Amino acid sequence: MDQLNFTPQYGISLIIVIIVISIILKTSPQMNILLIILIGLLVGYLYLVISNYLFPGLVQTLMNVKEFSTYMVLNRFDTIGYFSIWPPILIVLVLFIILLINRKI
Description:
Layout: H1 8-27, H2 33-54, H3 58-80, H4 82-101
């Protein structure tokens, strides 16, 4: 059984589907929900087919960008050390807890 690899194209397709469904719901809220979902999936499928036809190297380019950005983030995280990263995280955590206690969030 082959393993399914999710590429950034699927993420873009999912964002497009969500945008199309929200636009349809805003313009005609009384439309059948099954029809709305089918239209959204059809638009997402059409995006995938068209982008694979027009931009065959898009998947590899997006994967290279993803690998480069992951490498840069992990490389910089290793170089800053723990003393630089934990105090801001602790401050944000304390502020979040205080806001939760005061019910401001």
